[in-house]
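Ticket 4471: requesting a sanity check on a complex prediction with dinuclear copper ion. Repro inputs:
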Amino acid sequence: MPEQASTVAAKVDALYLFLLVVSVFFGTLIAAVLVYFFVRYRRRSDDERPPLIHGSLLLELTWSIIPLAIVMVVFFWSSKVFFEVHRSPPGAMEIHVVGKRWMWKLQHMNGQREINELHVPAGVPVKLSLTSEDVIHSFYVPAFRVKQDAIPGRYTSIWFQSDKPGRYHLFCAEYCGTKHSGMIGWVTVMEPHEFQNWLAGGAATQSPVAAGEKLFKDLACVTCHRADTGARGPNLTGLFQSDVRLADGTTVKADETYIRESIVNPGLRVAFGYQPVMPTFQGVVGEEQLMQLVAYIQSLKGEAKTGAPAAEPAANQPQ
Ligand code: CUA
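Returned structure tokens:
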């Protein structure tokens, strides 16, 4: 087993060990009984006819109820671990991850960029928001027992907290082409003060939110997405995580994926009360810029004022 270097590692291993023990126990038991019955009930002569058996309720209940009990234990136990791994605690440090054949591009919230290297502080929950520029990749750090696909056109997330400073191998765990095996790197867990020094020593770069705000102006998004009622597009303040009513009467949660979709494919799910006049930005902005735009829109906190006649109020929910 690889080193246990995150808060969930021991829990994943305990579940894995349980599955292994149960499988080995029943696998061995079944093999042993099989061999025993081969010998015990072998045909002793050509005219030997075994007695007819029409079933046994007790036996059938036994072999149904025992496996049911075991799989229910596995189900609830693994669900608990799954939710723990996938629901990041509030206030987790966010990092943007873009997979690209064949490298990992990462960006910290102060703007610092890294490629195939990730530096994080020890003792702090870290939330990764992942997407891909081309094909499916998978961000895998065995020592953290954390693996999450990076999928083109969608945002996924995973979180971890490591309390052990050190260097841990990072892999791509989804076959993505010729140099898939070279799509590797390192996650460096540092003492918090060392991490602050490292972060301060980086090249001065714009934070994703600031870069997104600049893009929002440069791409002239701001001309339509204004606060006044005459605006051609919905006002985006307080949009993130609110329920958006669509033209067909259904609602959609304005999460990262919906916001991204509305930029690259705006005609697909138009907010109620608006005309599908927005041009697509597919190919105009790359995945990293999309992440910056989403980060900026995410930062526009406040009352949802979409200006649309039947807009739903903002329902801020923790992720
Ligand atoms: Cu990226 Cu395999």
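Notes from triage: The first strand starts at residue 93 and ends at 100. Leaving this open until the requester confirms.
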